[in-house]
Request: fold
Amino acid sequence: MVGEEQAMRAAIAASEQVRGTTSPNPPVGCVVLAPGGEVVGVGATRPPGGPHAEVVALRAAGERARGGTAVVTLEPCAHTGRTPPCTDALLAAGVARVVHAVSDPNPVASGGAEVLRAAGVEVRGGLLADEVAAGPLRAWLHSARTGRPHVTWKYAASLDGRSAAADGTSKWISSAESRAEVHRIRARVDAIIAGTGTVRADDPHLTARAPDGTLLDRQPLRVVVGDGDLPSTAKVFDDAAETIRLPGGDPRAALAALAERGVVDVLLEGGPRLAGAFLAARCVDRVLAYVAPVLLGAGPAALGDAGVGSISQAWRLQIEETTMSGPDVRVSAVPQQG
Ligand SMILES: NC(=O)C1=CN([C@@H]2O[C@H](COP(=O)(O)OP(=O)(O)OC[C@H]3O[C@@H](n4cnc5c(N)ncnc54)[C@H](OP(=O)(O)O)[C@@H]3O)[C@@H](O)[C@H]2O)C=CC1
Ligand SMILES: Nc1c(N[C@@H]2O[C@H](COP(=O)(O)O)[C@@H](O)[C@H]2O)[nH]c(=O)[nH]c1=O
Ligand SMILES: [Zn+2]
Reply:
């Protein structure tokens, strides 16, 4: 027998498993409890066109869901998209109670809680809502509210704030632990963006790989922003994953083009000039810095011109979390509005 909070934690864990495979849909998790509180079904959103988390969990539960509770990270949908409404599936399964974390901000799909209540189902919203909103549903909620993908600018810097040595070499500044973590993050986002300068300087692969170099199961879309010529032999153009080029260099236009393709969650991996342009255009939602205990003394700064001419114009951040990543300090921070 598990409590509802424990069930929600299991639903969050299930949703984490499918991060990066559901866009433009949200990665949702659902746990179905029988009337006695036993877990009888666990599900997570299938890729677009496939069933939502509730339906996957209800199928696993079968008749044991009758009179039970569905615990789900997002308010069940009440609309027919590529699949029928989850509210219908919950009612057909005879669930007596639905507990969800976050309400659906999408005006087309929302209203599920009301539909269920009107049909006599007990509904409780808000359980572990902050955790879900800051975690598995963060990027999707951002894109549902703003219409543009969520952007994490990730960089590795020396303790003196440089992201390459004087000759342009930068492999590697951060530790093996940090780089392995970045590869796991890559496998969970929809797209990685780099500028032509980085492609020219580093010839990066921009794939998600295990420490032994083998490709992970899921690869993000690789996106190169900028107009300059690049060698056709660049690693980013190999067939390990899809790569697109976005000319023009306007961050908002680039993100709009990606949103058109269903991209929700973006990792911006540089370089300094492109990152500066994204910050100046207010297109960075989270900064993820791996600061390594190494000094370079010369070489490009981690961030290029970001439109800051005077200290009063500095981009102020709020730190969300600092942790050690092997020998490096990992800082997650959010630019302040205003
Ligand atoms: N440590 C780290 O985490 C990282 C380090 N690096 C290092 O950074 C260095 C490369 O830096 P950098 O040249 O700045 O790399 P960028 O990837 O930022 O590329 C800059 C180029 O991108 C194009 N571009 C497209 N849109 C814009 C825009 N809005 N504003 C500015 N440029 C735009 C321009 O080229 P075009 O003329 O083609 O349009 C520009 O020259 C290398 O030494 C690399 O090793 C890079 C990434 C991460
Ligand atoms: N130098 C540096 C990073 N650099 C980033 O990684 C890219 C290389 O990717 P790949 O070819 O796929 O391994 C490179 O172009 C740049 O964007 N990342 C880090 O985590 N730590 C580091 O020290
Ligand atoms: Zn649904």
Summary: The chain has a mean pLDDT of 96. The pocket of AOF (ligand 2) is lined by residues 156, 170-174, 178-179, 182, 194, 198, 202, 204-207, 269-270, 290 (CB under 6 Å). The first strand starts at residue 29 and ends at 33. The chain has two domains: 4-141, 149-335.
